Amino acid sequence: MAENDGMRSLRPTLRVNGVPVWQELLSPQAQQEAVSAVLEVAETAPFVVPVTPSGRPMSVGMTSAGSVGWITDRGGYRYETRHPSGVLWPPIPEAILAIWRKASGVARPPSSCLINLYREGARMGLHQDKDEGDLTWPVVSVSLGDAALFRVGGTERKGRTESLWLNSGDVAVLSGETRLAYHGIDRIRAGSSSLVPGGGRINLTMRVVAGY
User: Fold this and answer.
1) Cβ neighbours of residue 8 under 8 Å, at least 6 residues apart?
2) Helix residue ranges per DSSP H, the chain
3) Biggest distance spanned by C-alpha atoms of the chain
4) Which uninterrupted H or E stretch holds 93?
5) Domain for residue 2, yes or no?
6) Do 46 and 85 contact (CB within 8 A), yes or no?
7) CB atoms within 10 A of CB 172
8) Sign, Cα dihedral of 130, 37, 116, 176
9) Among residues 113, 103, 84, which one has the least CA distance to residue 20?
10) Measured between alpha carbons, how far is 142 from 53 in angstroms, rounded to an integer?
11) How buried is 160 (Cβ within 10 angstroms: 0-12 exposed, 13-18 middle, 19+ buried)?
12) CATH number of the domain within which 72 lies
């Protein structure tokens, strides 16, 4: 893909505990286009602060785009075809689909794009992405805005972990042996970017969900 499509050429891949990361894969223009697309999604499907099945509020705001969206509440972790308000999830914007086509290595489009909003102090504990049904498809994770300390383990919760600071425009892909790697965000470096209105970090994770 040419530079004027908003993507830089692939740089040598870094790996954090086996997970490949392409630093600054998105040009500044592509980053801005992705954030603008997220804001349009949020006009229809606003960010909500979800709770875990135990009732504990999470520190991130969440919304989704695509055929289905991932949610968590007292009913459990799952994919649903509608936002908690009852509206259908908006389609995944083209600016975001272009990143999937560049980074995923597969022809099939994603079914869902989970959008997490990290304001100052937000974090995400170690977890696996395993609710998709068919785990042979990759998960593409895109960082926009403030830098975030990304921690990656193995497929066992208590395994060895490694960490890497992700900056705006970085893209990581969980696939193959690392598809079920435990991963999370320990903290964000508040104020390290002015890309996200109001400050903070937006993380996009695109997935293929069985049946959608």
Assistant:
1) 24, 25, 26, 27
2) 28-44, 94-103
3) 47
4) none
5) no
6) yes
7) 27
8) positive
9) 103
10) 26
11) exposed
12) 2.60.120.590
Residue 15 CA to residue 151 CA, distance in Å, equals 12
CB 212 within 8 A of CB 111: yes
Q: Which residues pair with 127 in a beta bridge?
A: 183
Residue 177 is given by DSSP the state G
Residue 119 is assigned to a structural domain of this protein: yes
Asked whether residue 122 is assigned to any structural domain, the reply reads yes
Residue 1 lies in a domain: no
Q: How far is the C-alpha of 12 from the C-alpha of 32, rounded, in Å?
A: 24
Tally of domains in the chain? 1
Query: Does residue 36 sit in helix, strand or coil?
Result: helix
pLDDT in tens, the chain (212 residues): 333 355 555 554 799 999 999 999 999 999 999 999 999 999 999 999 999 999 999 999 999 999 999 999 999 999 999 999 999 999 999 999 999 999 999 999 999 999 999 999 999 999 999 999 999 999 999 999 999 999 999 999 888 999 999 999 999 999 999 999 999 999 999 999 999 999 999 999 999 999 99
